[in-house]
Design a protein that fits this description.
This protein is mainly β. Helices cover 14% and strands 50% of the residues. The protein has a domain of 97 residues: Acid Proteases (Cathepsin D, subunit A, domain 1). The N and C termini lie close together (12 Å).
Length: 139
């Protein structure tokens, strides 16, 4: 089980479930290097998204960030019907003791959006009155 508290990473007025994750590449995992970052759960996103600045940081750390293709990304309120073309990268994300190798897309945020590609491995309990959450691993 993984648990944590609600935080204000996504919006300063409405707390929501968030967690500190470690992001790295396959090379970074072998040499023990990575980046820690706040992440929020986004059940509306089919795939996990990472901030654009992390691409530059992983490259600066010489962790062999691998681009694996492109995807058109469109937000909930997007007026662009086809979305914007974004690069996809192969990334390792660690949440507690769980490690996931996933393809992520970059977004203009300062935090990671954990999408359904990872969320579907958990069973979640949101405890709003106590501003906390628990996740039970299904993987």
């Amino acid at each position: 089980m993984i648990s944590d508290v609600y935080g204000y990473t996504q919006t300063p007025t409405c707390p929501g479930p968030e967690v500190l994750v470690t992001l790295t590449t396959p090379l970074g995992q072998r040499v023990g290097k990575g980046i820690s970052c706040k992440a929020v759960f986004d059940s509306g996103s089919p795939m996990t998204c990472m901030p654009e600045y992390m691409v530059r940081e992983l490259v600066r750390m010489q962790l062999a960030l691998r681009e694996v293709g492109y995807v058109n990304v469109r937000g909930v309120n997007s007026s662009n019907r086809n979305g914007r073309r974004r690069s996809k990268y192969e990334i390792i994300i660690q949440i507690g003791a769980c490690v996931f190798l996933v393809e992520v897309v970059t977004v203009n945020r300062h935090y990671i959006l954990i999408g359904r590609d990872i969320l579907n491995n958990f069973e979640f309990v949101l405890d709003g009155p106590n501003k906390g959450w628990r996740a039970y691993v299904k993987c």
